[in-house]
Amino acid sequence: MTVVLPDLDPRITWSIRVLDATTAPDPDVLAEHTPDVVCRTASVGKLFLLVEVANRLVSGRLVETDRIDIPDELRVEDSGLLYRMLDQHLTVADAALLVGAVSDNLATNALAHLVGLDAIHAVAGRLGYHDTLMLDYIRNERTPDVPWTTSYGCARELADLALRLGEGPGDTPGAELLSEPVRERVLSWLAADADTSMLADSFLLDPLAHVDPEYQGIVLRHKTGSVDTARIEVGHVAGPAGRIAYAMAANWGDDDGDLRAVAIDAMRAVGEQIRAHITRLTRAGERLDQTVGETR
């Protein structure tokens, strides 16, 4: 079964790749569209931060109960909960959980300051990625004297990262960064991700409680990114009939208006086919093979 992409609005720059994770390490490509086009990926680059933090916890260079420090110059609001909390002196492990669960910007900056941007940059390079990076801290404003974006990437590399997190790195560059204990930690943080508003909306999961297999036996581990002119989702999703790794990025210009509805409609259309692929069920819960047979 392949995934048929919907008509893609030409006002949007797309980078899309959908992989059959059951055929790893050389996965079949179920769908793609300009997978090498580099897009702004907003919070998706935080995946590299989580990989670095998990490695330091596993190696003992960090301790779960260590407390984070938040420099005044890196205080930000918007996405997350920490900036609204009375006690912001969290442990490293809890800060990482907040990043995975609600893409917490303040916790992101605190952890990035703790491990250093250079170390986060090095993760992407060691994994063999050339067009995907967490470039900078989260900023309240992007002035000319700071990097142009928080993170960027292409679907080819982001889908590969999702595949390696979900299935294991195999014999790939930087495999030592994605040991089983590291992957377990990163995936446990991503299991709490409450943003199922994009592609994952089609999986019909409980946004606040899908750590264990949920609707139709689906297990989702994913990361999203949002800014005014972009929507991005990267993930690994498993069901009783298969497993898929995917990346879908949509960018548009300020002059095009707010195209989030157009972008998310396309993402949901792709998500619907992914759900059918991994469950062999239609949205109504009918077996897909039976439905196909009846319509021939």
UniProtKB/TrEMBL annotation:
Keywords, ordered alphabetically: Hydrolase
Transmembrane segments: none
An example Gene Ontology molecular-function term: beta-lactamase activity
KW Hydrolase (keyword) present: yes
Record SUPFAM superfamilies: beta-lactamase/transpeptidase-like
Span of domain Beta-lactamase class A catalytic: 31-248
Example of a GO biological process term: beta-lactam antibiotic catabolic process
Name of the featured protein: Serine hydrolase
Organism for this UniProt entry: Acidipropionibacterium acidipropionici
